[in-house]
Design a protein that fits this description.
Layout: E1 23-28, E2 41-46, E3 53-54, H1 61-74, E4 78-83, H2 107-117, H3 127-131, E5 140-141, E6 144-145, H4 158-165, H5 183-195, E7 201-202, E8 214-217, H6 220-226, H7 239-248, H8 262-277, H9 281-284, H10 291-296
Parallel strand pairs: 1-4, 4-8, 7-8
Antiparallel strand pairs: 1-2, 2-3, 5-6
Amino acid sequence: MGSGEEGAAPHRWAGDSPLTFTDFIAIDWSGQAVERPKGLAVAHARAGDTAPVLIDRPWSRADILGFLEGLADSGTRALVGLDLSPAFPFADAGAYFPGWAESPADGPALWALVDRLSTPDPHFAATSFVQHVEARRHFRQMGDCGDLFPGGRGRFRVCEVGQEAMALSPYSCFNLVGASQVGKSSLTGMRVLHRLRGRVGLWPFDPLPDTGPVLVEIYTSLAARLAGMRKGISKIRDAETLDTMLAAFGSAPHAPLPRHDDHATDAILSAAWLRVAAGQPGLWTPAGLTPDLARTEGWTFGVL
């Protein structure tokens, strides 16, 4: 699949009827530089109202790559949400990495660069990328704030500004410090996205295919907020709360879990939300999504 031509129309909702999916999968991601990060969680829902099921196993990022390739091989019509940012800010400065000659022109080229410079790192980690002499200048890392990190909260994508407008609390992908940082997850995710090129498309970087799986970026806190969780509370750690949130999306109660950590519950609730959200045309045509953003920054599914 190509990365799209500059100036082309963004890949939006096709036709007047909702896209039809048979399966809905949410993946809570992790940037931890180990083989099997504890934060990786996968939940699967089928069309209808049965509760999503946690696919409980010690996942690696390589396992998830194989899982997604399997969906493509089988032609499964799945909507797959990845809880990571597939790109860095671009619109605010006209580049991902201003001043760096290798700064890529679009999302797929960014994924290729991250993967190439991270080749020495096992488990799809990206330690080598953020230590690169040019790349590191743009990141805030523990004990190393790059001279081109703008200070404050850092740079944000257009859709992340939209997240704030929906009372969410996004973090800059250039900030790699703190428990809530998302940059490491995003970088490891970019390596996997590069390996999936030509196999599984990611909206809105790629056209929406007529068959097979579709990837979208999700923000698990958005699903919780839409289910009625009040601001200031973002994690579900008990069965009763999870069932209450699932009911908001028309889902039956979930089966007993071995644990109710926030990774498992985020994935389950997000899968239930994807099942509802997939049929809402407005989510595929956000007003702020321009052709340039569709190829450079992408968009968080569900942000209007």
